[in-house]
Amino acid sequence: MKKIFYIILFSAVLFSSCSEELDLQPISSATTETFYKSTNDFVSGVNSVYNDLKAYPDRLLNLSETRSDNLYAVSDGGVRDWEGINSFHKTIASNPYVSEAWLSDYNGIYRANVVLSKLEESGSVITDATLRKRLEAETKFLRAFYYFDLVRLFGKVPVITTPVSVADALTIERSPVTDVYTQIISDLQFAVTNLPETYATADKGRATKFAAQGVLAMVYMTRSGPTYNIEGPGLGLNEWSQALTLLNSIISSGKFSMVAKYADIFGYANENNAEVLFDVQYITGQSPVLGSTFPWVLVPDTWFQSNGKAVQGGLTIRPVSNLLISSFETGDVRKDFSIVPTYTYNGTVEDRPFFRKYVDLTKVPSNRLDWPINFIVLRYTDVLMLKAECILNGASGTQTEVDDIVNSVRKRAGLTTTVSNVTKAQLMTERQKEFMAEGSRWHDLVRSGQVETVMSSWITSIDVKKQMQPFQTNYVIYPVPQSEIDVKNGLYTQNAGY
Length: 498
Fold this sequence. Notes:
The structure is a single chain. The chain is mainly alpha-helical. Helices cover 44% and strands 4% of the residues. The protein has helices spanning 9-15, 32-35, 39-50, 56-65, 81-86, 96-120, 129-154, 166-169, 177-194, 209-223, 240-252, 301-306, 322-326, 333-338, 380-392, 399-412, 424-434, 441-448, 451-462, 482-487; strands spanning 276-280, 339-340, 343-345, 348-350, 354-355, 375-379. Helix 9 packs antiparallel against helix 10 (209-223).
């Protein structure tokens, strides 16, 4: 039975004051003061916190994938919001993608804080103590998830753990990155302890213990990345062993496995498969629209038209980097599945390749905002490759374990040649191919310490149009949205380099 979340109608009423960006239609006059009167009310309140995951996949594609060396998305004649992201423009503080990230994450945090405050006051409303702990753990998992997204994108951000008024919010400064992580880790540790391993079918898609372990492992790994001498997500800590313990717990559970065929991971008829630890779930055919939009974010409209489909909104091409394309070995099934190399529209051949990883042309909806496919946030292959990364960074394990993990991924990709003595650089190259168009590449480069050398070399090699700015380490994070800077003079200081 599918799906439990996104977008709960009356939750729009409960939380509509926290962002003008929400486009939800209330059906009653409920308020947070009068709503929480039953267990079902609290379940619905927690459901509303999941709501702000809806745009998360699009954000990854716009701010991680497009920022990375996977795409050479410079201007093709029009002004595109993604161009400044791709080309390291200094003037992107007003970019809508940047603003959306801040607003959506804090909207989710506000909702989480409201639910948690009401749970504290619930008294005898929720008589099932186990359910109460679970709801608290789900909410804290999501709050940590939103804060982790923020710290990876912006570095220092305000830490707010209770519902606050607009006036009070204008007194809260950005917290040091270490303090943001302290809150994230506290919430995730609570989630690991109190979330169930599995749910009944009706609740499929809620955060589990393993999802919390996976995100917490990524937090430790991200903190262990280099600082780049900025106030960004890396703290130069050596927490690879803490991460490995969590990853090994997921692996030893026996509840996940690699799907045999790469394409089946993303199959519309194969959602919630054995790879999935956590995903953003959608449902189609609802009013308001609850489907996904991420499948077409990187796909040009003319390709849909060339296949007899309506335009979706991708407008034009964000070309896949030729260097990425040339790196694939012969027979790698991931390349053909994920990339369209060329197509013909109105008699003209378009030879700029693009990602179409999530698109099934037999499933194109009548409403372009209502695609019927989930977005996998964390999958089992990622867990395995993160384990290999921890080992290569000094955590307990052997080179043979690393090689075996990489070769298992390569084998599924159709590659018969095995590799040995895999290095950190080689592992990141394998990750680039495995997770292309999934939004992980930029974060991988930052965490691994490769971002400065890789991006500087890549710009020199790929920027034939001479439109990209030289890379500098300040660009590891994004600017604070200008709209936030303007709210109160002096409250926030803009990140260096912008």
